[in-house]
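=== How it folds ===
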Amino acid sequence: MASPNVTPAILDTDRAETKPRSLNSNQETSPSSSKSINETVNGSHEYLIKGYSLAKGMGTGKYIQSDTFTVGGYEWAIYFYPDGKNPEDSSVYVSVFIALASEGTDVRALFELTLLDQSGKGKHKVHSHFDRALESGPYTLKYRGSM
């Protein structure tokens, strides 16, 4: 399950300051301040992989992709690599990514991926972030988690 918190670009300014200048005794200083409020959007998506044991062994670098889903007005997808994304995973680890499917968008997100076994008892959480501005292309894969 992925729960991205989509956050727009951040401008963090508590107060504006100017260069010091000399004042006449008749002039007064006037304080200045500004505030930026960043809205976040919470959402979730459950991606169920039926027949997981058949997917295991499909090969390193091969993935299963979720349908795209919308959170915060953006399209997202989950990529699951049953044998890992990279050769160094040696089919011992799985790799899970969240990807932005909306093109031409500058998005930052915090997300949590939770992997459950078939009994629903085993939980493995991956916490990370997504920053589209750092990557190019329609899909950006930012984090490799293991289970």
Summary: The beta strands are 5-7, 64-65, 69-71, 74-81, 95-100, 108-116, 123-131. Residues 52-55 form the longest helix (4 residues). Residues 41-134 form one domain. The first strand starts at residue 5 and ends at 7.
